[in-house]
Amino acid sequence: MHNINIVMRRELASYFATPLAYVFILIFLVLANACTFYFGGLYERGQADLDPFFSFLPWLYLFLIPAIAMRLWAEERHSGTIELLLTQPLRLSQAVLGKFLAAWLFTALALALTFPLWLTINYLGHPDNGAILAAYLGSLLLAGGFLAVGSCMSALTRSQVVAFILAVSVCFLFMLSGFPLVLDVFRGWAPQGVVDAVASLSFLGHFSAIVKGVIDLRDLLYFAMLIGLFLLATTVTLDLHKAD
Amino acid sequence: MIRCENLSKHYGRLQAVQGISFQVQPGEVLGFLGPNGAGKTTTMRMLAGFVTPSGGSASINGHDVVEDPLAAKAQLGYLPEGAPSYAEMTVRQFLNFIADLRGLTGARRRERLEAVIGRLQLGGVLQQSIETLSKGFRRRVALAQAILHDPPVLILDEPTDGLDPNQKHEVRTLIGTMARDKIIVISTHVLEEVDALCTRAIIIAGGRIVADDTPAALAARSPTHSLEEVFRSITT
Q1: Quick one: which of A190, A199, B143, B197 is 20 to 30 A from B121 by CA?
Q2: Of A224, A230, A243, which Cα lies nearest the Cα of A96?
Q3: B87 inside 8 A of chain A by CB
Q4: Cβ–Cβ of B86/A10 closer than 8 Å?
């Protein structure tokens, strides 16, 4: 636990030592608000909820989260600091977890900074704040899922650009796995059970279930297992390829 | 004690290290010599627990590097090739980070930080970010990281590479003063360094040990007593 905390704090500090943190937060907030007010028509809808915000958020995350995750391991491998880090007396899994948690905390901070939207909607009407809280929790879990995928892709390569493209592609597939675009690939030949299994992997399916205000244990478990699985894959990948 | 037995590493079909065995006792300064690509760095990485051996075994003070990596790493100070460090951190942040990972606390932590900062003359650049430092300073920061916890075993991959003659001298003196009760393994291309610093030299070529002797005995193999000549005749 102690080592995870040390790695996490260093990683988090490194975001703020470079323009990365400020640029990311600024772009995220501008885009989130633009989507909510212009495309989502928050005012015009005349409804006191944040649905416009939460329906655009996954698409925003699709590009912005891989931009955070791409540097997690690719940069360490490129600059050689991975050798320095992994020859200190800590476990590889502690390093993987520490860096992931730093990125997750950072996205949580960015998400928390959208609070003026919540203030606005509460000023305008009487929204269901329980549902909004659930939706924020869902967003945090979604960000965690994207980050875990991104962490794994970042461990595969020394190039941050390659890591970014891989992460966006894999996340995109996970997002759409409940849609015909992906399911039709399986429908032709796979049994219905497989098609249903692929459909149930969808980020969006589980995310929208939580955003509706229904916190089902299965949806929470889905994200927890997804994050665990991809962090495990990150650890295995690094163990095999760290010195290449 | 460092003990390597039949240590080997292959990447696919490439045999980087082919069955290296040696032991190093406290008080010894072992120089690793050999042409580029001979397997020096791979061997050091296996000892440091960064590369997993394909065969054979290695232990640091009785702790196997594969079976018990954390205990082995705790015994060890390691300077990786190219002396990497986190560029965006200041020197002080970086050294504090390493002190945290090494579990240094309280008075001992202050004392060790003060000692390495003084020893490697980092006092003037503590608040500077590492990316703004010269190559010589960066190497000293990475070296400070390796000796911060005062480990009984030091493995330094090209510790004086990129330093000016004065800094080289300073680092050699530093290694010399630490040599008495520690095990030190350094790799280098500077043969005079082996003469000045090492009590023993191992020459590696093609992933195998081709010579293992004191620098003086090695030099005596050539009629002109030149280590360089011996090195060339063995490795080409």
Answers
A1: B197
A2: A230
A3: yes
A4: yes
